Structures are given as structure tokens and as C-alpha cells.
Batch of 2 targets.
Target 1
Amino acid sequence: MTIDAIHTLCDQLSGHSDSAVRQVAQEIARLSSLLSDDLVKAKAQSSTLSAKLKVLSAEIKRLKTQLKNAQRARYGPKSEQSTPGGVGENQSVGDHSNSDDDDDDADSSDEAEAPPVSNVGKGKAPKKHPAHLRRETRELDPTPDQLCACGCGYRLVSTEVRERLAFKEAEIYVIKEIYSKNACRNCGHFVQRPVPERPFDGSGFDTSMFVAVLIKKYADFLPLNRITEIFGRKGVYIHRSTLSRLMKKAKGALKPIYEALLADIKLSSKLHMDETHLGQLFSGLGKLKTCRIWALCRDDRRWSGNKPPAVAFKYTQTREGIHAETMLSGFEGILQVDAYSGYNRLTSSTRIGGPIKLAFCWAHVRRKFWEEQLSNKSKPARKIVGMIGKLYKIEREMKGKAHVVRKATRQRDSAVIVDDIFAYLKAYVRTGAMKSKLGEAVNYALKLEDGLRVFLEDGRVEMDNNNVENTIRPLVQLRKASLFTGSADGGETWAIIASLVGTCRINNIDPHAYITWLFEKFTEKVPRGRYDELLPWNFAEELELKLRL
């Protein structure tokens, strides 16, 4: 019998003629009211505890997911190309760095240029070594004890040529220049050969030493103290502070070339941008401050653009968006970035030169769903990863095609998939299950919808920001080796030299040869107005011409 039924019967008995019956009915009604209040309270407490339990369960699940992701990031494979259970129909984009904390995990994807395949272990076919290498020829005739004693003599039938790569360790040596001073016996006229022009006048170090230290640090990622040890093994002791001063002088000489590089990059109509952290040691405080290095990249190889790839870095002590705006001064076009809110100021109508259109990164979106599927076997996450995989499959098939072809293909094939993705995400929001890692991934994608659709409108735009993140990866290796910079001036040195070395790297140019050539050009007094002629791709053209001749 329910409480309501008891109250109904008590109301009927309260009208009974017997006073004893009426008193009993009233007492039962009073007791049942107390019971009713306790039941209501118990039910309310049960509902509250049940809700709290659901919230705590969701929080535990979220934290477990974070722990799994952290463990996988540290100890597991970095690539998303192969996932347990075959997630998605295509895993074409490799893992890439998160601009805030995960730059160490930056990885090249199949959206990046593939390295040449090695022939090691693939048969005994002769290997062709680079033509520019010096050849040391050794003619090896048969030894006397191999010859027969018949006395008929030998004639040359043929030759067998074998080539092998050899290495000679770098040599540190002293250049001793003796300038003769001459005077005429009759008139006393005095003559002496003038000292040749050098990039670093008055220095006790030859230009080759500047280049060697620069390449060892910024191309081979050796910190200055290790370079000091390497020189020390040869009996040459150069203090780390001395090497630091050499790099400061080199930075001063290279800065105008860096400025010409940055100006050339900003002439493009579509660029990539990202940033990573770098510690700066504040002397006297004994602690590091987290500063930033911004990367601005041009890479049009996917659609066979006519401009060579290039990258320029900029060092700043904060992560404020004003630094990106300053670096992009004079640029007009489309900028591909991650979801960092500091870039939003670039879209302002009050920006000098007009607003910049932002394109966002599908790889960042996909990783969030990929991690959720990997950690919690989420079917919605698996579905989204599969649909994004279809987009990348289309991109792979268009590699190297003109941007007009890419645009037409995307509008015909990719646009439908993108519509399906966002329709699915919006339907998921209506389920109300948003207090989870999957919900965070859904919110992230929906927030960026407009920028994620930009690649459908322009065939020059990529689906992701991996191009610039791949250029940051060597800088992260340098950061791991050197740990921090000692000053803001040192941070600027990192940015300037790493820009030239990084541009050489993505153009397959030997940075040692380029920097040496560049310092030689400085002695020819090239006007600053023509410094664009000294950018890395011009050196490559000159070198190729010499090899042809």
C-alpha cells in the first residue's frame, strides 16, 4: 500500500463517529507524513549521490584517458599511421607536434617529402656516389708473383672499377700569411700586398672556423661545450664563451640575409605558421624563463608551386599574438595555423594590410579522436578517424597536381565527406554526452569548422600544418641538446642561423657549402639591395651551373 492510499483511508476514518477511531486515524496520518518526508529525503539523497557518482566516474575515465595518452606519448609509437584494430580507412598523416607542449613528438608524415630509399643490402649493383665529391684514383696492377713465367707478356683486356666512400677527419690547422714589405732603392717607394677582404676583419679565426662551429651547432645539434671538447681532443682549447662570441659575430653578418629571406617568404599568398618553446637563462636569478620561437614556412611542393620552400624563425620572450602580427607585417593571404587564440588578432579588419584568412589543421582534430579511440575504444571516435582518413586518401592521390585540379577534386569528393563529419559531430552534441574527452574533441572540431573548410576553397591550402611542424623538428633537437639560451641576443642568434640552415635542409642544400659561399660573396661587397640574390636556392642554381660546365 502506498503512502497516498494510507492518507486517503485516514481521511475517511477521521469522520468516524467513534472518537477512538478518529484518534487512531490521525496518529496514523501523522506517522505516515513523517515516513513520507523521510522517503522523499532518502530519494533526493539517492538521486544526488547517483549524480555525483556519474560525475566522478566520468572524471575517473577522463583522467585514465589522459594517463594513457601521456604514457603512449612518452613510451609508445609516435605515428598515427598504424593503430590497433586498423582505425580508419587511411592513416596517411603521421604524428605532428602540438605547438604548446609536444614539439618533441614532431614527426614527418606522408604529406612530407619522402627521403631517398637506401640501396644498402639490396644486391651488389654499383652505387653512384655524388658527382661533386673529390675522386682519389688508385691504379692497382697485378703483383709480380701473379704473373706467369712463359715470357709471352700481357695485354690489357679490360678494367674493373670499384668505388667506395672514404672519410678524412676534419683537420684544424693554422694559416700563416707572410706579407713581404718592399722598398725602392732609388726613391724609397714602399709597397706591401693589401690584406684580402674577409667577412670578419681583425678576427684571429679564419672564416672556415666560423662556418665549422655554426654548422656543428645549428645543423649537427652539438652544444658549444661539446664542440669545445671535440677541439680539445686535437690539442686546441677554445673556451665556450669564445665560441659564443663567434656565433654572435656570424649572426650580425647573416642578419641582412635573414631579413631578405623573411621578406621573400612574405611575398607568398599562402603560408604556414607555428611556434615552440625555448628556455632562456636569466643570469643572477638562477632560473629559466619559457620563451618562444615562431616559425613561418612556405612549402608549395604539394601543388607544384613555382617558389622554393623556405622557413624563417623569430625569437620572442612571450607568446603574445602581437609577435605573430609583427612577423607577418606586409603579408596578405591565407595563413595555416593551429587553434592558438593569439592568431585571431590577424583576422581583425583594422589590421594594416587587411585581415588574414586562417586555415586550421585537420591533423590536430584527428589526433584527439585517435587518442580517444585508442584509449577507450570509442566507436564515434573510430568513425570520425575513418572519415578523416578518407580525406587524406584523396589528398594523397592529388600529390603534385595543379592547385586548380586540387580545388575541383576537393569540391567534388572531399566536400561531401566534410559535410558528413560535421553533421555527425552536431548530432553527437544533441546526445548531451559532452563531459568527456570525446566531448572535448567534438567541441574542438566544431569550434574550428570555418577554418577547417578553407582547404576546400583553395587548392594551394593543405589539410594540415605538418609542413611547418616538420621544419620545427630540427630546432627541437637543438633545444634538447643545448637546453636553453643564455640571453635574448642568443635567442635571436638561434632564430637567424636556424632559419638559413633550415631553408637549406628543406631544399636539399649542404648548409656548410652554402654558408661558405655566402661569406665569400660578402667579400665581393654585394649591395644590400641585391641580398635576395644570396638566398639558398640561388646558390644551388650557381652550383648546378658549375657542375654542368
Note: Residues 40 and 46 are 10 Å apart (CA to CA).
Target 2
Amino acid sequence: MSDNKKKRSSFFGTLGRWFRRAFFGPGRELLDAEKELENLSEEEREERARKMDVEEIVTPFKQYLRGFLEHKLAVGALIIVVCMFLFAFITPLFFPKYSDNYIEVTQQNMRPNMKLMNVPARLKREGIKKIDSYGQFSVGLSNEGNVFVWGDTIVGTTGINVKNIPDSVKEANIIDVAAGFDHIIAIDDKGRIYGWGSNILGQYGKPKNTYSDSIYLPDILPTQTVDPSVIKKLACGYQVSGLLMNDGTLYLWGNGKTCNNLEKIYYMTDGKSNVDDFAFTKNDMVVIIDGKLETAKADRYQTIHAVIGDEGYPLSDYLGDRKIVSAVADSTTVCLMLSDNTICFSGDFPAQSVAIPVLSDGEYFVKICAGDHHYTALSNKGRIYSWGGNILGQCDISEIKGTASDVFAGANQSYVIDGEGSLLAKWGHRGYIFGTDPNGASVFQRIANGGRMTLTIGAVAVVISTVIGIIIGCISGYFGGKVDIFLMRVTEVVSAIPFLPFAMILSAFMGRVAISEDTRIFIIMVILGILTWPGLAHMIRGQVLVTRENEYVTAAKAMGVKERTIAFKHILPNVISIIIVNLTLDFAGCLLTESGLSYLGFGVQLPRPTWGNMLNKANNSTTIQNFWWEWLFPALFLAATTICINMIGDALRDVMDPKSNSEK
């Protein structure tokens, strides 16, 4: 047998023995060893015992490693720190659409929730008639007239849970339902109108405290009943609601400011014009009257786009003899369906949007529905299309198993059903594992990106501090004399500088200077490094003063070795243990310092996140009491990282400095 084969055989044999011991215990091997000892002579047994008594010689690194592994808590802390680094530097790679400036009002202050697409099982059993959503929750209507609510159903700080459907609604046969930002409107088969959720601006009735900008439901529909057979459309928006009848009568109620003078539009359409359709954007509304577009902000919607991203055309020129049949709207744009079965768009398109798909010959849309930033449509050939903003995966159509007959759009979701109301497909945003902040941004994504910034600043600051401390400490301790006196006086001057006030003053000064945020961050790292090295320099100087008296230093001098070589290549490696320990502890200190500066508003500025300024953003009683996830998760990540780094530093100090370890 060749040497290579013997080595492979020995290697696999060793692995096999390890595997058996790990999972089946060493019983068989012990029996074999006992039998082998029985067959040995007395002299052979004594020889084996002498070999076993020989002390194993290991390298310092292996000795340090073994000592560190004996500290179980430190090993666990090391695993946590490694996971934190991987989380901070790898996780953001999976969020290519992340933006520090992301703002979405309808998703602000959402609780940790991954159930935004969890359609209730009973609704699916009874058959889906309608699904509607405007923001954080969705409402569904079954073929049997029952209402279901799911998602983040608690309204802001009010404590109102829209999932608590009124008993009168549960007992009624509901024929239509719509969800707004913070309320739900339903109509039963007898024409009664129901509302629940927030009613502060008269979303479904006259509240206790009235506001001059609100239009109240009792003032428009005194009896609060309508003929259900002539209802054309029910829709809700941002704290407003609208009901359109077949005869063109449009009823509006809710916050008048939100939709730019709703009362003016209401009186304009009340019995004077034939309203064909209406739609709510986030801050506006549009109505279609006699085939023409009317809105309180005429300039915003007078430029028409046949395709998203084109130069646009004046509304009147583009329409020609065609009329507008219907309209649907997301937060900032309006989609108009024309009399020749074509569509066009107006409004403000987001930077990241998916262009409308090209239809085949003879194909046209029979239904279009809108979410907050996307549209989903069904064509006459049964095909499904989805386009618009796709930051949350709203346009990533999933596999559809069956023949689609209807589509519905949630705020950031889409649903496809067949003729019997069975759910064929759903896609879009499932929720936020750590909730959202006041801007509607994912706390999880901001923690990941903020961790990368916090850890980077801490690491660079420690490197700068360590390099300066090593150079000053080595030179001062080795050369002594006037050099030592001068460098130690400089060290004491730097030590005397009050770090936090100095950093705050310098940061405030930088705020008045026109510099980029990247330059500001670089300056923060340099400041942290320059002001935190004196402690390390003192410790290295003390160690070098002791080490330079050893014989090997005298021998090196006698051999003519250069002074700097002796200091940095002979003495420094012998004090490396204290450098490693100090580097670890200083890293945790720099993390806390950066986070403290950012928390006080003098570090990295928003919207760029760090763990510190995320805590600063949550520094108010309302957030602490009602939106606990906005401060708890950043605090946990920061605390876990710094505590674990300190535990690692303490363990390394015990291992590398036997004098500090009472067990040795």
C-alpha cells in the first residue's frame, strides 16, 4: 500500500472513531484497549505509562485558545458577536431596494406583524366576494355576507382594534365593505351604513369633538340609509369615505383637509353634474363628471402619460373625442380607463416603478384595482398584470392555479379569485418582523444598516486609537528619558480633554459647515480614535519598561540590531496580549461612545441610521409607551454586542495574563 493510501486510510479511520465516540460512546474502544493492556508485558506497561506522563508541549497560541475555550460564556459571547457582524454586513445585501430616505405614511408605526396576507380560513371557505385595504389592515367580505379583518388592526395610539367588528355588523347581511386608513365602512342589504374604527374626523358619524374641516355622515345622509340596488361604488381613503349612486349622486364624508376641500367638490356634484366615478389618492381625490376629469388640484392631473415614464401629453389633447369611463388611484397617481378600452395615467410617479405591460392584439383590461403604490389588473383574456412601485414585492406575481375571474389589491398586496370566490393566488408584502418607525420604514432593515455603520465607526476608531497608542507607548517606554517625559506630557494633555463635551462642540461646529455626511462620519471616526489612545499608550509603556530589561534585549543590542527593530519586533510581540485585550474592550467603548453621541444628536445624522440615532428618534414618551419595538430592538442589539465584546475581553485578559487569573 502506498504512503498516500496509508494516510487516507488513517485519516478516515480517525474520523470513524470520532464519529463512533460522538454518537455511540467509547465503550467498544475501551474494551479493546483493556484487552490490549492485558496482552502487554509488565515492561511494556511501564513504558507506556512513562510516555503518558510526558508533559505536552504546546504553542502559546494553542494554550490561549484552550484557555479561552474553557470560558463557556465567553465562547457564547464570541458566537453572538460574530453573528452580529454577519448580520450587519451581509443582511443589507438582501435589501437592494432599501433607502435611508424611505417614507410611507400608511405604514408608519406598525407593530411587529407578519400576517398582512393571512386571509382568514373561514373567508376562504365561504368564498371571497371582496377584499379591500388602504394601509395597515385589510377587510374581506364573503359570499355569505360576513366581514373579516386581518393585519395590524390596532389604530395608532388610540387602542381601537378594527378587528372588533360590531355585533350589528355580524348580525347583518353585508353587501359591500371598504377600508380606509383608520376606519371601515360597510353597507347591508337593507341600505344601512355601518362604520367602526377611528371617528375623530367624522369618518362614519359625528364625533364628540367636532372640527370645522370635517363633513359628517349624518349631515349628508340624515337617515343613514340608501337604496342598496342603486349603489355603484363604495370607497374609503385617508380618513375619508365616498359613496356613489347609479344616478350620479356622490356622497362624501370625513376629513375635508385631507382631500383638499371635499365640501367644495361635494356641492359641485350634488345634483348639478352626473358623476361617473371617483377615486382617492393619499391627499387628493378625483371625480369623473360626464366623461371628464375634475379635481381640486387641476394642474397636478392635467398631464397624461400613455406609458409610465414618457414625456406626457396635455389632458385635452390626449383624450380627443374619447371619454373617461372610470378611475382608480394609488397614493400619488391616477389610472384612467377610456371609452376605447385603453388606459392612461396622471400624477406623480415614484422613482422606482415597473412600467405597464404591453397587451397582445385584441386584449384590454376589464378591471383595474390599486394599492398604495401599485396596480393589478385583469384582462379580457383572463391574464393578470401588476405594475407600479415594487419596493415591497407588490408586482411580483405568483403562480396562479386556475381561471382568474376577479382581482383585488390591498395596500401592498394583490389577490386573485375564481368565479366561486376561491383564492387562486396572492402576492405582495407579508409584514414587518420588527415593525416600522414613524416614517413607515422597516425597523429590521434600519437596524441592519445602522449596525453596519455603528460597527464600522467603532472598528475604524479602535484601529486609529490602537496604532497611535502602540507607537507612543513603545517609543516612550523603550527610549525613556526626555523622549518619555515629552510623550507622557502629550498623553496627559490629551487625557485631560473632556471627551464628550469636546465631541459635542466639534460636532455642532461641523453642523454649521457645508460638508457631506460621509465626511462628517469620517471625522467622527478620527475624533474617536485620536481621543481614546492615552490609556493604551500608558499600559504599553509600562510593559515595555519592564520587558526592555530582559536578556534578549541586551543580546540584540550587543549584536547591533537597530533600536526601532528591537522596540517594535522584539519587545512589542511580547506585550501583544495586553494590546489584544485593550483593543477588544476599547471596541465596545467606541460603540457606546458613538451610540451616545448619535443618541444625543451629535453623531451620525438621520436619515442615515445607527443604533444610537435610532434610539434618539424614539426618545419621547409617546414612542416609549406605545411603540416599544422602535426602541427595544435597537437597544437589544447594541446592548448584546457591547456586553458580549466586554465578556470576550475579560476572558482574553484572564487567559493571556496568568497573574489576573486566580486559578493559575
Note: Residues 21-25 have pLDDT under 50 and may be disordered.
